[in-house]
Structure formats: C-alpha cells, structure tokens
Amino acid sequence: MTAPVVGIDIGGTKTAAALVDPGARVLGRREAPTPARGGPAAVLDTAAGLAAGLLAAAGPGPVGVGTAGTVDPVTGAIRYATGSLPGWAGTPVADELAARLARPVRVTNDVAAAALGECWAGAGRGLGHVLLTAVGTGLGGAVARDGRIAGGARGAAGQLGHLPAPGANRLRCGCGRYGHLEAIASGTGLAAAYALTGGEPVTGREVARRAAAGDATARQVVERAGTALGASLAGLVALLDPEAVVVAGGAAGTLLPAATTAYRAELPGGWAHVPLLPAALGADAVVVGAARLATAPIHHDGGTST
Questions:
Q1: Family assignment (predicted)?
Q2: Residue 6 three-state SS
Q3: Which CATH number do you get for residue 51?
Q4: Res 158: pLDDT
Q5: Parallel, antiparallel, or unpaired for β 148-149 and 276-278?
Q6: Which residue numbers in the chain have pLDDT < 70?
C-alpha cells in the first residue's frame, strides 16, 4: 500500500467507511446505521454513500469491504447470512459496490477483516498464527496464518459461534438452532439469557451495564457467558495450535474477565503459554483490515483469493 485506501465495514446495526493510510492509521471515518428497511439495495447505497466522500483522498486502487455473512472468496457475493441483514444472502456485494463506486471492490467476512487488521497493526502484529473471535451482537471467528485468512472449502473456516456450548441449550442461535456458543456468548445471548431469568427484556449492552453496576442476576449471566467462551477457546487452541487468541468486538470487554479465568483453567498444559489478548484496534479493526484486503488480498485455502 503506497497511498490511502478506503475500507468499509457492513454490520447488522451499523455501517462504517474509513480512509486508512499505509501505516494503518485511520485518517477519516464516517458511520451510519445500517438500514433496517429497503433490503440489500439500501444497505449497499448506505455503504457506497459513506465511502464516496472519502475516495477523493484515496489512491486509485480497489476498495476493501468486511461484511456480515459468509462471503464467496472468488466472487465477493454472500453465500449465507443470518436475519441480522434480511435478504443479504445471495447479494453480489463486490459487483454492486463496484458499480456504485466505479472502483474494483474486494470483499471478505467482517471477522476475517478484523483478524487481518489486528495481524497487520493490532494485537496480532508480528505473530504468524492467530485465532480471533469477535464478540458483538453475534459471535464470529477467523484463523490467520502469516497475514492470510484460512478460509476453508467455502471461505467460512473459524466460525466458532456454532460450536455446541454447555448452558446454551435453551437459547437460540442466530442460525435458528439452539445450544450454540453464539446463543450464550454474544450480545444477543446476554439479552436472551437475562430474559430467561424473569427480568424485563433489555439489550445485551444493558445487561453488561447492569452487571458492572452490581446487579447479581446480570453478573451471573455475564459470568456464565464468559466462562462458556473461555472454555471453548481453550479447546480450539488445542485443535488449531495458534500463537495467540485475540478477542475483539463490542462485548469483548464485558466477557473477557470470566473468559480469561475459564480459558486458563481449561487450557491443556502443552499450550499454557498461548495468551488470550484483547484486540487493540477497537471499532476500527474491520475497516483497517478491509483496507489491507484491498491492496494485499487474502489468499484462501485451495488457491482462490478475494
């Protein structure tokens, strides 16, 4: 990268675009709510509108995008998406945004973009093999090796949110099934678990606030969620053998204390040195990683690339 690049983050609740320089510094950032109505076209129009105002200061190359959903690594279209973005599955994001912006567009999953960003300029910098989990409204994961994302046969490797998790059997995952890790260790999971205790319906963010304020029920919900997350990550370390595990996302800070305790308790002895690290880029992780993707495309397993 020799000139600033625009990176876009398309999520279920917000969309952001940023101008990122060759040193991974965010020079400008724009954000708007992701449209709840109007379908994929409205979402794409919002993303393009945010990016358009930054392109004049960018170099002539591609735009990078990190988006919710499973992304086809060859076409940049959405293979699978949950209900957080209605109608998103099947959307040819790369082609549609390229038409709107008159620029080539490269697309990957938002958690993969966050992993790329953290390995470029964040908590995973200088490490060759990193497992990243993003804890937000939902729960995602990605595996990065030497600055590349291990995509798997369908570009979806690392989606740890759909692992079975003790304590989640009554909680519904974003995929529609019950008992998955995302159903307990995510913002949505915190809200659902709190509601099952008989409390009034509140958001996961509010559950976290109440836990911090000393609400005993909220603290129990957060403790249970963090414990499930930490134990699952410990098992994945034994499977994947990374140098470090990075925890990102808006709910990461809430779950990290309990997750760290469970992680250390469950980590097999042979991997006792593998740290559990908080992400360093915060809300910029996806846009920074998307910018990196634009000029250093991710090569997925099997030889295909975004």
A1: Belongs to the ROK (NagC/XylR) family.
A2: strand
A3: 3.30.420.40
A4: 84
A5: unpaired
A6: 297-306
Q: Are 195 and 201 in contact (CB under 8 A)?
A: yes
How far apart are the C-alpha atoms of 178 and 68, rounded to whole Å? 21
Quick one: DSSP state of residue 131?
E
Kindly give the pairing relationship between strand 14-20 and strand 26-33. Answer: antiparallel
Same domain, 133 and 261: yes
Q: How far is residue 129's CA from residue 280's CA, in Å, rounded to a whole number?
A: 17
Q: pLDDT tens for residues 153-170?
A: 777 788 899 999 988 888
pLDDT, tens digit, for every residue of 122-160? 999 999 999 999 998 889 999 999 888 887 877 778 889
This prediction has a pTM of: 0.90
**Do 30 and 152 sit in the same domain of this protein?**
no
Instruction: Output the pLDDT for position 34.
Output: 95
Domain tally, the chain? 2
Range of the domain at 214: 126-279
Read off the tokens for 58: 């960018």
| pLDDT at res. 121 | 95
Query: Which residues, in sequence order, are CB contacts of 272 under 8 Å at separation 6+?
Result: none
H-type helices in 36-148, by residue range? Answer: 39-55, 93-101, 110-121
135 and 264 in a single domain? The answer is yes
The Cα–Cα gap between 72 and 274 comes to 31
Specify the DSSP element, H or E, that contains 188.
Answer: helix 187-196
